[in-house]
Specification:
8-oxoguanine deaminase activity, globular, about 20% strand, Amidohydro-rel, nine-stranded mixed sheet, Metal_Hydrolase, Metal-dep_hydrolase_composite, alpha/beta
Length: about 450
């Protein structure tokens, strides 16, 4: 849909532009015109003359404009348990932290979501997601609190409404009082979709069905969760093939590896994306490529938990959709996605493909268009093209950190974290000169500290 001639326009000029479109079109000096919540034009040189209703002109000299970054995997609640179990692998880390996580409540979930969202948004994220799966009994409206925080921050958002029904007494890792029943999880998930999911082109809030993982979820919840998602017309998300221990668990419990197990429960398809996918063999990658199942690559978290190096170059070569994820901030304490561009490139170069694994432009594509693919929104966002939603970032590249690097995309990916001069979501500016315009960062810092301390006290008393 074209923007109305009466729409207010913002014109950005004199900037380098990486569109991340199908042809990786770039402009050494170009313009972007925002009309309402859409990109009206993008191209070389100055903006077209005679534009009506121009309410703002931005001189982008010294800047690179890219699509906004898209985060495809996160656990917001972990913001208030950062810095714990820092020398653990995944399973031991989960065992150490589940007793604390099982005691979160609505004010904690809200504050943690605010902290997670604020940190990402001020670093160039325009579309975020949260895989929230811990719903302790009597904890309040956790999903509503998370969605409210996203709405206040001003980012585009997908809530992956998670669930667990395999507690300690059934051989799972979480405490029994922190898991739901099969029927309860399905009913609550359906209610969340019906209340909050928006399927429109410019939706700011969407919901996915997201049982947590094979070792915390029953086979029936996986199977019925997939059926529920497809009946409601929403996407599916879970963790997959994160560690060698998970692969061993699946073979022992189900008699097959994770990918075969997922396929047996209806969990491969173009409406599915999975986090991590570190331990994938050629057959697994071929299955993902054949079904167009997406992957959320979380390089920093995988390194923090010593999970391994995902075969991202092989996935991309096979045609698997791949985006980037922060993962929960109890396993990636920085909570920033723009640093994952660099980490994805560097960590993948430690793998079999070495220096040919990823380059700067492939890394940027993972964090933008790849993320949009994974979330099912590539028609709407993820690249700078006329008609797409106005989700974009102006990165300042003329400071000490970057000015001596001639190529701005190389500077953005290989260099230090670049300052964000402006970030727009749906045509609305939410960041200016590295500070959020929509929420009070200092107030959030105080509230997250207070809620982290309250949670620690409750967990210690338990």
């Amino acid at each position: 849909m074209a923007a109305s001639s009466a729409a207010e326009r913002t014109v950005i000029e004199n900037c380098a532009i990486a569109t991340v479109d199908a042809g990786d079109t770039e402009y050494a000096s170009g313009h972007v015109v925002i009309a309402g919540n859409r990109i009206e034009s993008v191209g070389a040189g100055s903006a077209p003359e005679g534009l009506e209703n121009v309410v703002r002109r931005i001189d982008g000299t010294g800047h690179l404009v890219t699509p906004g970054l898209i985060n495809t995997h996160h656990h917001f609640y972990q913001w208030i348990t950062r810095g714990l179990a820092t020398d653990h692998n995944l399973f031991n880390w989960l065992v150490a932290l589940y007793p604390t996580w099982a005691r979160i409540d609505e004010p904690m979930a809200y504050a943690a979501a605010q902290g997670s969202l604020a940190m990402m948004a001020r670093g160039g994220v325009t579309t975020a997601m949260d895989h929230h799966y811990v719903y302790p009994r009597g904890s309040g409206d956790l999903s509503g609190a998370i969605i409210r925080a996203a709405r206040e921050t001003g980012v585009r958002f997908t809530l992956a409404r998670g669930s667990m029904d395999r507690g300690e007494s059934d051989g799972g890792l979480p405490p029994d009082f922190a898991v739901e029943s099969l029927d309860g999880a399905l009913a609550a998930t359906e209610a969340t979709v019906k209340e909050h999911h928006d399927s429109s082109f410019d939706a700011m809030t969407q919901v996915a069905v997201a049982p947590c993982s094979p070792f915390s979820v029953s086979t029936e919840l996986m199977r019925q969760g997939a059926e529920l998602a497809r009946r409601l017309g929403v996407r599916l998300h879970t963790h997959g093939s994160e560690t060698v221990e998970e692969e061993k668990f699946c073979h022992e419990l189900f008699g097959m590896g994770p990918t075969d197990y997922f396929e047996s429960t209806g969990w491969l398809g173009e409406d599915v994306w999975m986090a991590h996918c570190v331990h994938m063999n050629d057959s697994d990658i071929a299955a993902f490529a054949r079904t167009k199942t997406g992957v959320a690559h979380c390089p920093s978290s995988n390194a923090r938990l010593a999970a391994g190096i995902a075969r991202v170059p092989d996935m991309l070569a096979a045609g698997v959709p791949v985006g980037l994820g922060v993962d929960g901030t109890a396993s990636n304490e920085s909570g920033e996605l723009h640093t994952e561009l660099r980490n994805a490139l560097l960590i993948n170069r430690l793998g079999a493909h070495r220096e040919a694994a990823l380059n700067a432009r492939k890394a940027l594509r993972l964090g933008t268009h790849g993320g949009a693919q994974v979330l099912g929104r590539a028609a709407e966002t993820g690249s700078l093209e006329a008609g797409k939603l106005a989700d974009l970032v102006l990165w300042r590249m003329d400071t000490l950190a970057h000015s001596a690097i001639a190529d701005p995309v190389t500077a953005l990916v290989f260099g230090a974290a670049a300052p964000v001069t402006a970030s727009f979501v749906n045509g609305r500016q939410i960041v200016e000169d590295g500070r959020l315009l929509t929420v009070d960062e200092d107030a959030i810092a105080r509230s997250t500290r207070d809620e982290a301390q309250r949670l620690a006290r409750i967990a210690a008393q338990a």
